[in-house]
Amino acid sequence: MKTTYLLPFLFSAFIIFSCSDDDGDTNNNNPVITQPPVANFNIENDNCVAPCTVNFTSTTIGEEVSLNWDFGDGGSAGTETSISRTYDTYGYYEVTLTALNAAGTDEEVKYVTILENPPVSNNYSKVFFPSSVTFTLLPFDLPTSGNHIITYNIKDDLGQSVASGDSYISQNDQLPLNFYFDNAIHSERIDQTFTLTLNNTTTGESGNFSFVPTDYPPDEFNNCGEHNIVQNGLGVLLPICWEN
Question: Which domain holds residue 64?
Fold first, then answer.
């Protein structure tokens, strides 16, 4: 009789596990970006006479950030950290820096004022401000309810008022705001510093900026012109008229 024996076989199985960090990154040399950037920049050589070159430097905070500039003049944008832009025409330009990384985006907006090139010669000796004025920025927030009374006053360096007025604003208003001067007198202090003060009499908030009329001369075809003036967060499209 033939006997058959069944011999057992031992099988070993190997299981390989692939482990990763909690954040899903298997390469410690490339950490995941979790914080979006904070965009910001500095401006040099603002308030120059056209044509002129303005310098911009990003001070953006963040990791692995890509930048995109918009200089407000309709030209091509830039991506450098430090960049210059030549403005050929006077005006008021909105400059936007957009910062981007894997965690998100952020924008910072600032304004550049390019002055007019003074005419070759003129015989103007007096300046005054016509009735209407447009405020493009305010040093305080628009009201959230009710009406607020805004007063404004332009004085020369001797403290003499040369233009003044007041207006109501409400939560339904939007910038820019059009105001009207109650009075405007002629002044011969054209090369002196004038100060415009804007005051919210309802809340007590106020803001002011200074300017010299000769920095905003008339063009050769018109003795009145509207000029964008920005200082301390206040923007105004201010009509300035000249007389002999």
Answer: 41-115
Check whether residue 46 and residue 134 sit in a common domain: no
> Residues 154, 194: one domain?
yes
Q: What is the pTM of this model?
A: 0.50
* Dihedral Cα 15, 21, 27, 32, nearest 10 deg: 150
Last residue of a domain, one of 115, 138, 166: 115
Strands 82-87 and 194-200: unpaired
pLDDT in tens, the chain (244 residues): 444 444 444 444 444 444 444 554 445 566 788 999 999 999 998 878 888 899 999 999 999 999 999 999 887 788 999 999 999 888 778 899 999 999 999 999 998 888 776 544 456 788 888 878 888 878 888 888 888 998 889 998 888 888 888 888 888 888 888 888 777 888 888 888 898 888 999 999 888 888 888 887 776 556 777 787 877 666 788 888 887 7
Instruction: Say which CATH number the domain at 87 has.
Output: 2.60.40.10
Are 93 and 172 contained in the same domain?
Answer: no
